[in-house]
Amino acid sequence: MPRPSPWTSGAVLIAALVVGPVLAIVWMAFNPEENVWPHLVSTTLPRYLGNTLILGGAVALLSAMVGAGAAWLVSMYRFPGSRVLQWLLLAPLAIPAYVGAYALVDFLEYSGPVQTGLRTLFGWENARDYWFPEIRSRWAAVLVLTGALFPYVYLLTRQAYRDQSGGVYEVARALGAGPFGRFFRVGLPLARPAIAAGSAIVMMETLADFGTVDFFAVQTLTTGIFTTWLEMGNAGGAAQLAMVILGLVLILTTMEKVSRSRSRFYRLERQQRPVEPIRLHGWQAALATSACVVPFLIGFVLPVAVLGWHALANAEEWLSPGLLTALRHTVVVGGSAAVVTVSAALFLVYGVRMTRASLPRKLLPVTTIGYAAPGAVLAVGILIPLATLDNFLADTVLAVTGFDPGLILTGTAFAMVYAYAVRFFAIAQGAADAAMGRVSPNLPMAARSLGRSAGGALREVYVPLIRGSVGTALLLVFVDSVKELPATLLLRPFNYNTLATRVYEKASLEQIGEAAPAAILVILVGLIAVAFLARANR
Fold it and tell me: H or E segment at 265?
């Protein structure tokens, strides 16, 4: 039997480390120390599941309406600000949903500027004198999550409209179809796969959210994991809830793939004519501009304005030791996760290309499962096995040397870096695979014929040619690591704060002024990624 190459063995090991947390969840869910599943089913699970489905469905529906509608307007029409708005509508991707939640509540709560202004304007003295909608509610969470997530639908749908032939719409106009007829009977059916894909991403991001639903006191499956694990002390029950989330994710991805497979459209023209936008005037132009400006205001301008005002009003917080420490931790952990993730992805993709074995090739698509799994779910699958291994190593070292090393894996930021690497491995793997696919196979073959080893060909041929894609992957993994909240809250060592956890802790204590500088830094990091995304989609 031939001995497997180091590249094959390494690729299989990396794939196992990425998939391991999900397998650990499955094991713990079916083999809990104390089976609380009957209790969960009869008490809290229906409420968790109901809220999750209602929230996910409402956010996906509103995001599809806003995203697809805005994409149609900026692609098919010209109106005041349309050229700028097509890029500004991507900006809400830089705002984590939990940051938007803190800003909305601060803006609309009893002591906020809106209600204060209303009381001053109408002479009201207290809340009993007027009615105002409940801010911390499920529907407020829907609004915040829609404002943060609709760009996923917008981006994919806008690209779908741009790829369509202008001749289709010219024929529709010649046959008497008006603006609504062209949208509902031509544009919407052709863009349906893109809308379905974007809506599926929105629903998975909603499933993964913790900060927003926790702040609005909406009990979902994600908050149930925190409650079952941290308050009830039952890791098996948390794993069982995590299995429910994984089941929902699997259903969503399957439905999205089925939808795409049943909706196939082909180009019939060799030289496709682009869509020629129609110039709008008068009230139609004003209405189109307003329809695109409102999502941008809610998803980006409002959070930045509220938090920016607090950050300026509390300028001393910028020099707070806690903020500087959180910034240092964020850079170290996020940077480490980016380097580890991209390096492992390069090794895995290159190892699959180098080996003739079928196992690594079959495992390659499976490694993307971490991106679909919420951070809280991965934290359950990482912390329990790592804690067991950590205690075993500490006891072994103590028994052999008499020295107690403490908890090396779970007592440091190692678990956080591991979680980020698993969660965002799909980003790095996709970038590495696409970049290596653009390199001619003749170049590494020539390097090998000149005596270079497989590793030498990777270092001296592939890496220099794909360094742009590698840099982009490093940036995207770093940005997503900075914004990740649920996994960080569950896996961080005691008294170890990042920018995301500092924002969460301060805002949870109603100290929005102290949370604002950290939130602004998170937004600035997110804007860098949005700028790269906009550049790539010109």
Answer: none
Q: How many CA atoms lie within 13 A of 20 on its CB side?
A: 16
Alpha helices (H) along 484-511:
486-491, 499-508
C-alpha closest to that of 385 among 397, 374, 393 = 393
Distance CA 290, CA 286 (A): 6
Coil, helix or strand at residue 278: strand
**263: pLDDT strictly greater than 90:** no
User: What is the pLDDT confidence band of residue 486, given thresholds at 50, 70 and 90?
Assistant: very high
Rg, Å, the chain Cα set = 25
Copy the structure tokens of residue 286: 């004003």
Alpha-carbon torsion angle 142, 148, 151, 153, nearest 10: -30
Q: What is the mean predicted confidence (pLDDT) over 375-386? A: 89
Match 């702040």 to its residue by tokens: 215
Q: For residue 29, how many other CB atoms are within 10 A of its CB?
A: 22
How many Å apart are CA 337 and CA 144, to the nearest integer?
28
Average pLDDT score, the chain? 86
Burial of 246 by CB count in 10 Å (0-12 exposed, 13-18 middle, 19+ buried)?
Answer: buried
Distances (CA, A) of 215 to 99, 104, 203, 307, 337: 10, 11, 19, 16, 28
Q: Which helix (H) or strand (E) holds 271?
A: none
14 and 368 in contact (C-beta within 8 Å)? Answer: no
CA distances to 67, 181, 330 from 285, rounded to whole Å, are 18, 19, 44
Q: Is residue 71's pLDDT more than 70?
A: yes
| HEC-encoded secondary structure of 214-261 | HHCCCCCHHHHHHHHHHHCCCHHHHHHHHHHHHHHHHHHHHHHHHHHH
Of 479, 485, 468, 369, give the one whose Cα is nearest residue 93. 479
pLDDT value at 299 more than 60:
yes
CA distance 493 to 52: 29
Give the whole-angstrom CA distance, residue 221 versus residue 52.
Answer: 6
Average pLDDT of the residues in 159-163: 80
pTM of the predicted model as reported, rounded to 2 decimal places: 0.87
> Is residue 265's pLDDT more than 60?
no
Mean pLDDT of the 462-473 span: 80
3-state secondary structure 290-353: HHHHHHHHHHHHHHHHHHHHHHHHCHHHHHCHHHHHHHHHHHHHHHHHHHHHHHHHHHHHHHHH
User: Hey, what are 480's tokens?
Assistant: 């997503």
- Average pLDDT score over residue span 174-201: 77
pLDDT band at 273 (very low <50, low <70, confident <90, very high): low
Do 210 and 97 meet the contact criterion of CB atoms below 8 Å apart? no
Amino acid letter, residue 441: P
Helix (H) or strand (E) holding 279: strand 278-279
Per the DSSP assignment, residues forming a β-bridge with 77 are 278
Asked if residue 1 has pLDDT above 50, the reply is: no
